């Protein structure tokens, strides 16, 4: 969009703050302050004068011109004539009520559009007048039908004929699966699909990346520095200027507007209560159910466990424990 011209011409009259973007408009405005009316009516026995040409023309058309010879604006209902379109519109609005084309036969309610009347009839009949052409689902208003119809719209890829339900998914598919690697690095020959990726990659081969530019904090007794100027600005706002974003609900102080927005969303969400899982709520069965449990001590000692000979197993454990006591006793 083109920028509008700046209003640089200020009125020099005391107490007037008018500003204009054209010098001739300022000159015309000053005529009003000085009561200078340079546009004089030339009709006989008329001493009217005006500060602008348009005001003089309107005076001549309304007062001096012959209605029979000049073009007039006529009311289509009562054929009354007016000198300009604005007066005719005002007359029709006051004296003639335009007939609304669609009227309910039951309650005599008036509507400008046919679909509004169809939606209104649901109040009397209980029947939905709008039906989806794809799934035959019925709706009360045309707006609800159009909103629903967007769900059936699909986007088909022209290269692999895969369909997507949203435009964003279709664009992401083309960007990832069908984009050609057009950007090739001259140093190592590596190729990239996007220009931004190769720009970031080229910095690897540059010697300047070994010593990144430091943005040092200008405040005294502060030794912080950053590789990005945006991070330095954020540091100054939070640590030195104490600019924070306050939550109106719990009075918490957040460093950025994005963090404040996320924090406010947490207030709107109900607290999460963790429910313990049981077999009734879907807890899975143990994988080792029904399998005899072995002894960890025998496994560490390298002794194979025989579940049928429990006495030998217990005696071996006693011997091992006695040996350990002798060693450390």
SSE layout:
Blueprint: E1 9-10, E2 19-20, H1 23-33, E3 39-40, E4 49-50, H2 53-64, E5 73-74, E6 81-82, H3 85-95, E7 102-103, E8 110-111, H4 114-120, H5 122-125, E9 130-131, E10 138-139, H6 142-149, E11 155-156, E12 163-164, H7 167-178, E13 183-184, E14 191-192, H8 195-205, E15 215-216, E16 225-226, H9 229-240, E17 245-246, E18 253-254, H10 257-268, H11 296-301, H12 310-328
Antiparallel strand pairs: 1-2, 3-4, 5-6, 7-8, 9-10, 11-12, 13-14, 15-16, 17-18
Walk me through what this model shows.
The chain is an alpha+beta fold and 329 residues long. Among the domains are: 9-83, Classic Zinc Finger (Double Stranded RNA Binding Domain, 2-Layer Sandwich); 102-152, Classic Zinc Finger (Double Stranded RNA Binding Domain); 215-268, Classic Zinc Finger (Double Stranded RNA Binding Domain), CATH 3.30.160. It has 12 helices and 18 strands. The chain has a two-stranded antiparallel ribbon. A hairpin with an 8-residue loop joins β1 and β2. The model has no long low-confidence stretch (mean pLDDT 78).
* Strand count: 18
CATH architecture of the domain at 9-83: 2-Layer Sandwich
Helix/strand class: alpha+beta
For the biggest sheet, the summary is: 2 strands, antiparallel
Order of helices and strands: EEHEEHEEHEEHHEEHEEHEEHEEHEEHHH
CATH homology-level superfamily of the domain at 9-83: Classic Zinc Finger
The amount of beta strand, in percent, is: 5-15%
Number of helix segments?
12
Q: Which percent bin holds the helix content? A: 25-40%
Shape: extended
CATH class of the domain at 9-83: Alpha Beta
For the largest beta sheet, what order do the strands appear in spatially?
A: 1-2
What would you report as the Rg, rounded to the nearest angstrom?
43 Å
The average pLDDT value, as a whole number, equals 78
CATH topology descriptor of the domain at 9-83? Double Stranded RNA Binding Domain
Distance between the termini: 92 Å
Low-pLDDT windows of residues: none
């Amino acid at each position: 969009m083109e920028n509008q011209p700046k209003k640089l011409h200020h009125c020099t009259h005391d107490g007037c703050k008018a500003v204009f973007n054209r010098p001739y408009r300022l000159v015309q405005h000053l005529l009003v302050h000085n009561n200078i009316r340079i546009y004089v009516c030339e009709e006989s026995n008329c001493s009217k004068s005006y500060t602008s040409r348009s005001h003089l023309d309107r005076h001549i058309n309304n007062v001096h011109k012959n209605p029979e010879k000049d073009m007039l604006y006529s009311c289509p209902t009562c054929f009354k004539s007016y000198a300009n379109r604005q007066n005719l519109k005002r007359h029709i609005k006051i004296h003639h009520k335009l007939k609304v084309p669609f009227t309910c036969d039951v309650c005599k309610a008036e509507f400008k559009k046919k679909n509004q009347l169809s939606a209104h009839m649901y109040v009397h009949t209980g029947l939905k007048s709008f039906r989806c052409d794809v799934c035959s689902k019925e709706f009360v208003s045309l707006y609800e039908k159009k909103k629903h119809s967007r769900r059936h719209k699909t986007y088909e890829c022209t290269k692999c004929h895969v369909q997507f339900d949203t435009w964003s998914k279709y664009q992401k598919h083309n960007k990832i699966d069908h984009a050609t690697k057009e950007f090739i690095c001259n140093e190592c020959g590596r190729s990239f699909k996007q220009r931004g990726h190769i720009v970031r990659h080229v910095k690897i081969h540059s010697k300047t990346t070994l010593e990144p530019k430091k943005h040092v904090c200008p405040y005294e007794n502060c030794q912080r520095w950053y590789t990005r100027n945006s991070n330095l600005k954020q540091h100054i706002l939070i640590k030195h200027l104490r600019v924070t974003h306050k939550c109106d609900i719990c009075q918490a102080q957040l460093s950025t507007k994005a963090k404040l927005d996320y924090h406010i969303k947490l207030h709107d969400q109900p607290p999460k209560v963790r429910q313990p899982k049981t077999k009734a709520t879907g807890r899975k069965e143990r994988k080792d159910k029904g399998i005899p449990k072995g002894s960890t001590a025998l496994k560490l000692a390298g002794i194979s466990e025989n579940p049928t000979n429990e006495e030998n197993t217990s005696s071996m454990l006693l011997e091992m424990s006695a040996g350990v006591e002798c060693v450390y006793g």
